Amino acid sequence: MRLFLRYIITPVALLLLLLPAVAQSGKGAAAQKSPSGEQTSALKAGDRVLPENAPRVSGTVEPDSIGIGDRFLYTIEIEKDQVQGVFFPEFGGDGSSHYELIESLPVDTLEREGRRLKLRKQYKLAAFQEGLHRVVPQVMYMDKNIVDTLSGDDTLVLMVTTFQIDSTSHSIFDLKGQMDMPFKFGEITGYLIWSLVGLLVLALLIYAASRILAHYGKSFGTIFKPAPPLPPHVVAFMALEKLHEEKLCQQGEHKLYYSSLTDILREYISGSFGVGAMEMTSDEIIEAMRGVEIASKQKMDLTEILRDADLVKFAKAEPESEQSEDAYRKAWEFVSQTKPQEVEEDEDAVEEKAQKEAQKS
Fold first, then answer.
1. What's the rounded Cα separation, in Å, for the pair 164 and 59?
2. Which site among 105, 150, 214, 347 is 20 to 30 Å from 243 CA-CA?
């Protein structure tokens, strides 16, 4: 495992350059302070000389034996002075392929005694290379002019094992065919029960809706019954109002204007008098209307409108605006004065009934 490769190249190189001078000055100071051969105030770590109060590093691996791909907990503990700086290692991105970082836990403070601190850093790692791994807990140490890598006294051992697969002792079989399972009634019992419950709820809703409609004197037939067709004269009045709003004469559309006007009258005559005016010519309509009991003035007005419309449609005549307005007025009066009288009586009866109901309320 190559830890701290990015952080220690330059500091270690500088330390190696300064190591002879530091060692020489240390020896001179030791000779002056303890000429009788007493213990010096420095500790040795290999060829390096560290201060007596340098941090102490230790670590653990739990568990110490795992299968390949399994996870384990790597712990580093350090005892240091509170003014000393330490940097814990990082996993992932440093070129190491032995371990994968699962989670880096925050640094915990275990003990505090005066200026001394005991810190703990834990990592959740996964191993993907089998074999015996030897791990030395390390941290980077900084204090005044000292930059060094501190290692623990103990080497941690991690055993990573794998499964041995023997493919020679096993036979390879072909895929099995599809198996037809017998039908069981219990497989659809739940669906049948819920279907019956849904039908029962729907029947109750229909019964409740019919009772409510019956209370108001209605039924499902009246709800879904199509609206009765409008009387021919109402349809004619609506069409005449729409034609007047289009202002076709002002736009020079005289042929379209008279064609629309005569079509409205043809439809009204067909619906009110039973004359097949939609398939008749103007002369045939005039001849058929002679047997209808309406005022002579209305017959004359209808004849005049149809004759003028033929001139505009077939002779390309361009009537004056006053003549077009007069044709529209005559068509409106024709519908108004020839509409069935019983309709007026029915409308009056409805109005009187509404007034009586309003007085009662």
1. 31
2. 347
Q: What residue spans define the domains of the chain?
A: 5-21+45-159, 189-224, 232-345
Instruction: Tell me which residue of 137, 136, 127, 199 sits closest to 159, measured CA to CA.
Output: 127
Tally Cβ neighbours within 10 Å of residue 172. 5
Is 76:139 a contact under the CB 8 Å cutoff? yes
- Those residues whose C-beta lies under 8 Å from the C-beta of residue 87, and which sit 6 or more positions away, are 7, 139, 140, 142
Which string of DSSP letters, residue by residue, matches 98-123?
A: SEEEEEEPPPEEEEEETTEEEEEEEE
For residue 50, give the H/E element and its range. strand 48-51
Q: Is 60 exposed, middle or buried (0-12, 13-18, 19+ CB in 10 A)?
A: middle
Q: pLDDT (tens digit, 9 = 90+) per residue, 26-76?
A: 444 333 333 333 333 334 444 455 667 788 888 999 998 988 888 999 999
| pLDDT on residue 75 | 92
Q: What is d(CA 51, CA 43) in angstroms, rounded to the nearest whole number?
A: 6
Considering the domain 5-21+45-159 in this protein, what is its CATH number? 2.60.40
Q: What is the pLDDT of residues 258-269, one digit of tens each?
A: 899 899 999 988
DSSP conformational letter for 47: T
> 3-state DSSP call for residue 59?
strand
Report the alpha-carbon distance of residue 306 to residue 127 in Å, rounded: 102
Strand pairing of 71-81 and 116-127? antiparallel
pTM for this prediction: 0.39
pLDDT per position as a tens digit, 128-163: 888 888 888 888 878 777 777 878 888 888 898 887
How would residue 205 be classed by pLDDT, with cut points 50, 70 and 90?
Answer: very high
Residue 128 has a CB neighbour count (10 Å cut-off) of: 13
Q: Would you tell me the crossing angle of helices 296-314 and 282-289 to the nearest 10 degrees?
A: 180
| Amino acid of residue 339 | K
Q: Are 278 and 293 contacting, i.e. CB atoms less than 8 angstroms apart? A: no
